[in-house]
Structures are given as structure tokens and as C-alpha cells.
Design goal:
The protein has about 500 residues and is α+β, with helices and mostly antiparallel strands. The protein contains 16 helices and 17 strands. About 30% of the residues lie in helices and about 20% in strands. The longest helix has 23 residues. The chain binds 4-amino-1,4-dioxobutan-2-aminium adenosine-5'-monophosphate and magnesium ion (MG).
Amino acid sequence: GRRCLSQHSKRSVAQFLQWKPAEKVDDVVVNGYVRSVRSMKAHRFVSLGDGSSLAPLQALVPVDQAEGVALGAAVRFTGSWVASPGGSQSHELHATKVEVLGPSDPKTFPIQKKYQTPEYLRTMPHLRPRTPVNAALLRLRSDAIASLTGFFANRAFTQTHPPIITSSDCEGAGEVFTLVPASESDVATEAKQEKEEFFRSKKYLSVSTQLHLEALAQSVGNVWTLSPVFRAEQSDTARHLSEFYMLEAEMSFVDDLSAIMDLAEDMLRFLGTSLFGSATVQELLSRPMQLGSDLVPSDVVRQRWEGLMQPAWPRITYSEAIDLLQQKSDLFSLKPVWGAGLQSEHEKYLAEHVGGRMPVFVTNYPRDIKAFYMREAQPLSSDNAATVECFDLLVPELCEVAGGSMREHRLEPLMDAMKRQGLTAARTSSDDDPESAKNLDWYIDLRRWGSPPHGGFGVGFDRLLSYLAGVSTIRDIVAFPRWHGRCDC
Ligand code: 4AD
Ligand code: MG
């Protein structure tokens, strides 16, 4: 009857593939895109996909109804769902009614049913998700967001929306994009100088929501956000984008860094255990290799998930890491020295040899190579220079997926740190302060009226997903990637 029909019409391809009735069922409806057409004597053998599964639905279409059923077309088939003992799938659709809802020219459709290189697919981000594996990556992202939202809700974290347009460069790395209205960018330079800035002073796209999250954490308690952030990094690597999503959490009334690391570890383990058994992850792990040579072998990807689900990830200090690396000095093109940042070859070594399958926390980096807001650590031994209470979380191949720290919550030490980094606080000193410092007045203000010890972290969400999906470059995990020199549609 009608009721039955409308119920069946809601089935996705994935749901059809799970549906194994003993008797044939008539009047079922499936919507999808034609992935391939094979000609038989009286029938066309059609594979349909709708982005819900890697495997297609197989349908038999009578030849006299097959007009317009061509690669790429959007179609609706009505027919019977019947067991197909000989076929590669347990059931198939015998179409009795065919509607071509959106025709396609199979000769020019850019997504052909053959191996197409990631480079080629990247030139057409608007069509790329029509490849089954790219659709699966979109589903993985959605599942991960749902899982993490549940994690934070269970712990009574408030989800917040900090701003994208900001006054300051949170990380102080000079990688901000400046925001200029189109009407101003076209004006000749001289005229521009006379004209007032849109927001009266320079504004940027956020590189991290952390500073605003700190303000929110001082009012509602523990907070988190998943927000787009922007970095004008010229690095042309498999790990860097100009626009990416960062998952950030900030906790108030925490005493030390171990609480921040515990949260990051619990969160990622929760993500691992809640998603590992999902249809999407299992599909990604069992996908046929010809789907793309830029996918990491699935046994390696499986180990990544297993590592994520293991308890008690190793935590070592930066100084211990340097000692370890110096013992293996021959392996590296850049020699590890205390006081310098870890190179990716160093991070790779640590992730692979200290963590095994598990991610590794490296803590307490030298103060002078980290951001101004980090709280100074108690000296670990008398001969060490100043370090800060911070961590980087490293995983094999990909290196840094997250960073976090205790924040300097006391007024005087924060201002000292800002002075050291050339961010002198405007209110307390002369007029020639850099503009960026004035823009941090509000941040300093937070320390004046009830600033408890607090800290948090930021996870590179797209990096994390590419690690867990086994996608070798971050450009293939993001639907519309932007990186230095490239921003297609
Ligand atoms: O280490 P980062 O710079 O840390 C912060 O921005 C802190 N304010 C976060 C916080 O404590 N709330 O960035 C965090 C993570 C990195 O570990 C890395 O995984 C990712 O963001 N990331 C990038 N991902 C893609 N493309 C880029 N250009 C990235 N830069 C950093
Ligand atoms: Mg970092």
C-alpha cells in the first residue's frame, strides 16, 4: 500500500544493502546516482550510489526503460527487492519504473569508473564527493562531530561559538590573514590611508579561538568549540591548510597540565571506541585498495585506531625527548638541540619509538619557543632554562595533532611574558606599543577580576580525521581545501 511505499522510499543505498528479506518485496523506491551501466541482453545492469556506502546497489533495468540511465545521472528506480543468489550482493533491485531526475552526459562526466589520481580529483572539489571514498570521508567527519558533541555533553562542557573576526594573533606567529572589505581593497593606497578602517582598526581572521574561549571558561565553566580557523602559512605540506577546523576545549579551576592531557586523551579514546565499530570506519578499513593510491594501507590505519583506544598514552618531557633524540643523532638531518623546536623528523621518531601505536604527549617545552600565554613550569632540574606547562600530542607519520597548555592566569607574570615577547601591554607603558598589544588589553583584563588557574588544548580536526581515515594528505579530507596558491571553488 501507499504507506509501505513511502517507508521504503526513505531507504538509503546503505540501508538497502543491509536489508535481506526472505521474500521479494515489491514497490520499493531507491534514489541515487548512476555509477556504472553494463549492457546485457534484455537488461542494463546498473550500479547506483547515493553517498551512503562504498558498495553500490545493483539494479536490473529493462532495456526499453534504460533511456537516459547513464553514468552520473540522478535517478529514481521503483521495483522489487529480490534475492540474487548468484550475484555479488545478496539482493538486487528489479526496476519496473525508471525516472531520470537529473540527466548526465556520461562522456563528459569527470568522475569515471576507473582509478583517478587524487591530484586530478582535487581540481574539481565540487564533484569529488561523488567518488564513493570521498563521500565516506564526509560521513566520517559527521560521525566524529556527533561523537565528540556527546563526549562533551556527558561532561557538562558548554559548546560555544567564539568569533572568527578578531583583533589579535593568538599564536603570535604572524600567520594571520587581515580582513579588508572589498570596497576598501580597491581604493588607491593614498585614498585608503585617509579612509577609516571598517572596524576602525585592523582585524584578522582567527588563528585559534583560545583567547576568547578563556573568557567564556571564566563565566560558564568548561567550554569547547569546533571552529574554522585561518592561517596564512606558506608551507606546502600534507599537513597544512589555510582554512581548517580546530576543536578547542578550555577548563577552569584546574591545577596542572595532567588534567588537560587527561581530557585530551579521554576525548580521543572516546572518539576511537565510539566510532571504530561504525559502518563508515569498517568500510574504510575494508575498502579495496584500487580506490586510491594516496590511502594508507588499511592494516596501518587499523593500528592507528587500536592505538587511540589503548589506555595510558606515554608522556615525556621535551628535555627527555631531546636526550632520546640526541642518542640517535645520526638519524636526523637537523641535530636535536635543547632550546630549538622539534623538527618533523624528530617528532616522527618520537611518535614511532616512544608511542608505538599510541599517541605521545611531549610536555614542558622551552618557554622561549612557545606562545606568550603559557604558564611557566616549576624548574624540573636546576640546570634547565625556563620551560612552560604545555604539551604537543604526536602521532606516527602525521606528527602533531594537538597542542595545549596551562594558561598564565596571574596578571604580573602574564605582562612579563608579553614584554619578553615584544607584546608590551598598552595600558601600562608608552605610546609606541605595537598595535597588537593594545588589542590584547581585554585579554589582560581577564586577569584583573577573578581569573582561576585554567588551561586547554586545540586539536587539528582535519589532521585528526586524515590520520584516522588513512588519507595521506589533509587536502583530501577537506571537501573544499584551501592552501597556499590554491582555492578552487
Ligand atoms: O598548535 P596550535 O597552533 O595551537 C593553538 O592554536 C592553541 N591556541 C590551541 C589551544 O590551546 N586552544 O594549533 C592546534 C592544532 C595543531 O596541533 C595542529 O594539529 C593543527 O591545529 N594545525 C593545523 N592543521 C591544519 N593546517 C594548519 N595550517 C595547521 N596549523 C595547526
Ligand atoms: Mg602547536
